[in-house]
Amino acid sequence: MTHRPAPVSPPVCLTIATSDSGGGAGIQADLKTMEACGAFGTSVVCATTAQNTRGVNSVHVLPTEEIDAQYEAIATDFDLGGVKTGMLATGEVVERVTDYARDLDAPLVVDPVMVAASGDRLLEPDGEAAYEALIAEASLVTPNADECAVLTGTEPTDEASAREVGEELVALGADAALVKGGHVPTDDEMVRDILVTADGHETFEHSRVESEATHGSGCTLSSAITAHLARGDSLDGAVEAGLSLMARAIRYPLDVGEGPGAVHHLAHLRERAARETTAEAVANCVEHLVERDVSPLVPEVGMNVVGATPYAEAPTETAAVEGRITRTLSGIQPNRGVRFGASSHVARFLLAAREFHSEYRFAANCRFDDRIEAALADLDWAVGEYDRSEEPETVKTHEGNTMGWGTRRAFETADGTPVAIVDRGEVGKEAMTKLLAEDGETLAERLTVLCDALQSAE
Asked: What are the CA-CA distances from residue 12 to residues 42, 171, 335, 402, 419 (Å)?
């Protein structure tokens, strides 16, 4: 039987920027990100670069007639829902793009690309002055600290100065400015990005990632924001979605090339794609434990098995048994099925453990007592532990911080990468053993081995 086509109509975005032969930034990053965000990406190539993860070797700017021809082809055929600019290379190109912007009937995101992550200059000096007119046409401008210094003469050094710089850019005519905080120093290991509009400002924050693989981060962020605006999101909603995507892209960079590598433009998409197989692995592990009947391992509060996707960043991105696994007269049984976000305690433990061994994706909690301790001693496993009595008051006063502190202590004290971590508990907190594994099958095997060792000791 012949199939009839079933066309879809995604919003269309346009990137006006430069090609990156290394694939991590520029037009290539823009198109990957737009597609990942549910938009159809089109492009106007202003220049080509010979570059890779180590740096930029050369730049070739296209004739303005060719740039015009590309823009005309796109503008006369597609209904554009969002437009962004990237590296424009020269003042003449910036001025030409400003002419396009004056006739746009779509949000315009201006990413004023001036210097590559490698330190190579990407904009000729005459282009700096030309940017003022382009910014005046922008729905949003997204400079980093170095670009702020060029555009306004002020380099932001804290949240207050970043807000002031954003206000200057809005005064130039932009509807909004997102001053990126990646290069702005902070005292608490957090990155703060400041969105400034005529109505005020909003601060977005996320944990700083100590990584040199940030090639393409600015392109990825501005493209994600553009795609979300094209989908009809509000400005603050589009910015929040873009920053979330970029944070994950930096957290899980692509280890390609001989240099630091590039951000992972599709990391958030890969996270979603891995959910079904992760949930299935948790369910299979639970089924094995029920068949084996590991009742001796189940603590009073119940057991849970948790699986994280390869790109998980929050408990909502981990699959677990809803209601936990409990002992019954006939063995153990899960209270309900597997769903994402069903665990808090064990999920936070697993995510904390991944900070020290990113290959760990599965975890389970078991009881702990003298017999479990003896069984662990008989096994050839690296075991870490922490004592809640040593927990600093500054940690105790913040809900959820114990898992991070305790896991750090356990990894620091273990002889090797721990397979099991012991929490000796305290008043009102049951002592617990937590097992870790790279996959669900290995976790099920380790739980079975521990149960056999416990029963053999008895």
From this structure: 7, 30, 46, 46, 48
Q: Cα–Cα distance between 386 and 405 in angstroms, integer? A: 9
Closest CA to 196 of 230, 228, 229, 236: 236
Six token digits for residue 209: 């990632």
Query: What was the pLDDT predicted at 122?
Result: 65
CB atoms within 10 A of CB 159: 18
The residue type of 54 is R
Pairing of strands 12-20, 80-85: parallel
Q: C-alpha angle with apex 15: 10 to 18, nearest 5 degrees?
A: 145
Written as one string, the DSSP assignment of 7-62 is: -----EEEEEEEEETTSSSHHHHHHHHHHHTT-EEEEEEEEEEEEETTEEEEEEEP
**Strands, E, within 35-169: which ranges?**
40-52, 55-61, 80-85, 108-110, 140-141
Class of domain 274-457: alpha beta
Mean pLDDT by 10 residues, the chain (458 residues): 92 97 96 98 97 91 97 97 95 95 96 72 72 95 91 88 93 96 79 94 90 91 98 97 95 92 95 97 97 94 96 96 92 94 94 95 95 92 85 61 83 91 83 96 97 82
Around Cβ 183, how many Cβ atoms within 10 Å? 15
SS3 451: helix
> What length is written for the chain?
458
The answer to whether residues 128 and 147 touch, using CB atoms and an 8 Å cutoff, is no
Which residue type, as a one-letter code, is found at position 102? R
The Cα–Cα gap between 282 and 337 comes to 10
- CATH, domain 12-272, list 3.40.630.30, 3.30.365.10, 3.40.1190.20, 3.30.559.10: 3.40.1190.20
Query: Which letter does DSSP use for residue 253 in this model?
Result: -
Evaluate if pTM is beyond 0.85.
Answer: yes
**In what helix (H) or strand (E) does residue 75 lie, and over which residues does it extend?**
helix 64-75
Q: Give domain limits for the chain.
A: 12-272, 274-457
> In the numeric block, which tokens belong to residue 386?
């922490």
